[in-house]
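Quick note —
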Amino acid sequence: MTSGLPVLARRGLINTDIHRYSHRSALDQYEAQRVYHWAMSESAAEAGLRCEDWLRQAAGDGEFVVLPEGVHEPRIIGPLLTALAGRLREYNRSRTDESRVRLRVAIHNGLIHLDGPTGYPGLGAVLVARLLNSQDLREVLRQRPNVNLVAIVSREVYADVVLNRYEGLRPELFRPVRVEEPGKNFAADAWIYAPEEDLTR
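Predicted structure written out below.
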């Protein structure tokens, strides 16, 4: 086995999770995956993005995505998430509470290894996974049944993208949270946002 210099790149990173996936039957999990794939593909196309160009690591109940060079977070937080929330709302309108497909999404920008043997190693990948696991993010979906998608963005993305109002983003609609996992020695500031509802209220 030979070792060489890793293939490093600073890229936009997305992590997604289907709400209450493990509580579903196998057939319902299959349907949730199908809906996720449909909604993400259609929404990406509407936002002028090509899922075929993404590096994707599937997890059954969601996925980890490394965006291509030149695809920046404003297009993800603005057009993509708005379209994705709309597709999910369209699907969920005629579904029972148990069968609705709702998403948590985490967004970060960081250094990543593009040539990992089984994935895409990097501290950025760890951070975006920790953000996705935020209890504040989960609570939004528990407490606000009208929200089909809730997102969390890292401190870096908030400072670089949201505060500059790219793609018409409004910083006043983003709510600050502190994400902590003491057992894993992790703490970070982040901001949560839902395209369909003002979470600061």
